[in-house]
Automatic annotation (TrEMBL):
SUPFAM superfamilies in UniProt: ATPase domain of HSP90 chaperone/DNA topoisomerase II/histidine kinase
UniProt cross-references to SMART domains, sorted A to Z: HATPase_c (SM00387)
Key words of the record: Kinase, Transferase
Name this protein carries in UniProt: Serine/threonine-protein kinase RsbT
Originating organism: Mariprofundus aestuarium
Annotated Histidine kinase/HSP90-like ATPase domain residues: 37-137
InterPro entries named in the record: HATPase_C_sf (IPR036890), HATPase_dom (IPR003594)
EC number: 2.7.11.1
Source organism, top-level taxon: Bacteria
Pfam families: HATPase_c_2
An example molecular function term from Gene Ontology annotations: protein serine/threonine kinase activity
Length: 137
């Protein structure tokens, strides 16, 4: 990527932190020229992944940066926690999978559908790292 830089990072420890991350990322995406539909997709993904950090790991970090690759621009977001990890990441990427009865299991597969690119790495007892990207159309 020819012109990419880290914009900001927020620690996720509470519901308020999730709201702050949503607002800041929404503002950046609007400034970058993303349309309303893509801004909504990005902010929904941020909500889901940040809420997973709070729910399953208690705390973690959301970081993001602008991307530029030739004439194409986008945003890349990183979600990292040191929680219990996801034992079966392949299963977690399927609709309906949940480790609790408090969830419909739409989180990770839903985020994957909303974003252009997604990578996830999780190690039991160490934590989870998820990277998502959305490119301007």
């Amino acid at each position: 990527m020819s012109d990419s830089h880290l914009l900001q990072s927020i620690n996720i420890n509470s519901e308020r932190d999730i709201l702050v991350a949503r607002k800041q990322i929404r503002d950046i995406c609007q400034q970058m020229g993303f349309g309303l539909t893509d801004v909504t997709r990005i902010v929904t993904s941020v909500s889901e992944l940040a809420r997973n950090i709070q729910r399953y790991a208690d705390q973690g970090t959301v970081s993001w940066r602008k991307l530029a690759e030739g004439k194409r621009t986008g945003i890349e977001l990183f979600f990292e926690d040191s929680g219990p990890g996801i034992e079966n990441l392949d299963a977690a990427m399927q609709n309906g999978f949940s480790t609790t009865n408090k969830s419909m299991g739409m989180g990770l597969p839903g985020v994957k559908r909303l974003m252009d690119e997604m990578e996830a790495v999780s190690t039991v007892g160490i934590g989870t790292k998820i990277t998502i990207r959305k490119w301007r159309k």
